[in-house]
Amino acid sequence: MKAHATLKNVDSDACKPIILRNLSRILDIRIIDIDTENGILHFFYYGRKALEQVKNELGRIGYPVQNCHEESPRTKESITRRNFDNAPISISRARGSYFVRGR
């Protein structure tokens, strides 16, 4: 799932490597971007435990989370569902036929 966390005390680009170094220890997250101008951390996480670890670690190193917006995952149906009504149907193949010659 994807989350956006607004952090306190992020005031310069010097904060970015500190945050990256400390969050890289958490295996179930992937950092997308750290916006140092606005103090926003964008990341993917797998499971509620990983999200809580991120919040705890950020608080421990002095960048507590003010607000965290979690994007809900899309359902499997919405990902795999397609509209095939207008799709062109093609039966022809690019290669020749598959019959065995010479027997």
Model description:
- The chain has a domain at 2-72: 2-Layer Sandwich (Alpha-Beta Plaits).
- It is an alpha+beta fold.
- The chain has helices at 15-23, 48-60, 76-80, and strands at 2-7, 29-35, 40-45, 65-71.
- It starts with a strand and ends in a 23-residue tail after the last helix.
- 14% of the residues are buried.
- It has a four-stranded antiparallel β-sheet with strand order 2-3-1-4, covered by helices on one side.
- Strand 2 and strand 3 form a beta hairpin.
- It is built from three helices and four strands; from the N terminus they run βαββαβα.
Count of individual beta strands = 4
Strand fraction: 25-35%
Describe the largest sheet.
4 strands, antiparallel
Overall pLDDT: 81
Task: Please describe the structure with a list of short key phrases separated by commas or semicolons.
elongated, 26% helix, 4 strands, Alpha-Beta Plaits, alpha+beta, 103 residues, 4-stranded antiparallel beta sheet
